[in-house]
Design a protein that fits this description.
single chain, Undecaprenyl pyrophosphate synthetase, 40% helix, alpha/beta, 6-stranded parallel beta sheet, 8 helices, 15% strand
Length: 250
């Protein structure tokens, strides 16, 4: 599998990542700092999703993947999970007009069968409605875990081996990739993590082998266009060699 992912240059000469992934962390911390209920942080986080999605589309990003709800998040208090699911359903419905107006194609990855039925219905309707759009892809990672994705892929590959469709010695990186939740997803060029945490938290483990990381101390509800542009400038300043050598000028 070719791993050549040259970043595009915009008309202004800026380097634009093809695929930006974001770990949206710090909703609860933002709420504490502003002496607000924790749920208020989640509501404000939705505003950041809306703002950043618009901004990435305008800046020519090809795909934006948001870590919206992890497999581990099911361990949170039931009331908080209910609030998050309610917000997710509301977002999926309320943003349909903007999704269509901006030509965005909505998709999702994760163990989606764990989502409540009303959320799955809203997700399916929004995905179907936007399936023919040709603008930026907005991918929501829902009930998602990187290890779980790899496990599910390996199970699928083992099923093919058991059925006699594949020999063990024929299992390659390309075969594993073909059994991920979205095999055609380009690897992220840039991962942004908010709230200052220095870890990737089980997010896109297979896909992020050569992803550039930018960590900002700003909590997700406070992350807006200026913070996005700071991250994009940091990305543009880096030289990506994918294990090779930096080209020497003659």
């Amino acid at each position: 599998m070719s791993d050549v992912r040259d970043p595009r240059r915009t008309a202004s000469g800026d380097v634009t990542p093809r695929h930006v992934a974001i770990i949206m962390d710090g909703n609860g911390r933002w709420a504490r700092e502003h002496k607000q209920p924790r749920t208020r942080g989640h509501y404000m986080g939705v505003e950041s999703v809306r703002t950043v999605t618009r901004a990435c589309a305008r800046r020519g990003v090809g795909q934006l993947t948001l870590y919206a709800f992890s497999e581990e998040n099911w361990k949170r208090p039931r009331r908080e999970v209910r609030v998050l699911m309610r917000l997710l359903r509301r977002f999926l419905i309320s943003e349909r007009g903007e999704i269509m107006q901006n030509g965005i194609r909505l998709t999702a990855i994760g163990r989606l069968d764990r989502l409540p039925a009303d959320v799955r219905k809203a997700l399916d309707e929004s995905r179907d409605m936007s399936a023919q759009n040709t603008g930026m892809v907005l991918c929501l990672a829902l009930s998602y875990g990187g290890r779980q994705e790899i496990v599910d892929a390996v199970r699928a590959v083992c099923g093919r081996v058991r059925a006699g469709e594949l020999e063990p010695e024929d299992i390659t990186e390309e075969v594993i990739t073909a059994h991920l939740y979205q095999p055609k997803m380009p690897p992220p060029d840039l991962l942004i993590r908010t709230a200052g945490e220095m870890r990737i938290s089980n997010f896109l483990l297979w896909q992020m082998s050569y992803t550039e990381l930018v960590v900002t101390p700003v909590c997700w509800p406070g992350f807006r266009e200026d913070e996005l542009d700071d991250a994009l400038r940091a990305y543009a300043s880096r030289v990506r060699t994918f294990g090779g050598l930096v080209p020497q000028s003659s």
